[in-house]
Amino acid sequence: MRRGGRIIQGMSADASRKIYGRIGGLTAWSRLDPEVMVGPAHRGFRARFERLVDAEGQLDPAERAKRIDRALRAHMLTLAAKSAEVRRQRRREMATTNRKAGAVR
Hints:
Shape: flat
Mean pLDDT: 88
Largest sheet: 2 strands, antiparallel
Number of strands: 2
Number of helices: 3
Helix content: over 70%
Order of helices and strands: EEHHH
Strand content: under 5%
């Protein structure tokens, strides 16, 4: 892989890309304010939940903030539950595959 005219010897192109990607990311985070890096994304994500809990904008700001936080927590817990279920399913599939492979021998 080439970057700035140099090649990383003894590494696959994929491994080189990963290393240069990490270097670039860490360099950006070291030089820029975190608000610049992720601020717009965080604001957009939170705005989604604000629209969900108070589409008409009628709630008191303190109440809206509480509801947004609860909606965010519910969303994250839902993601965690789905992730855990996928991991359980993969473990079951691996166990079944391993049992079948042992029976074939």
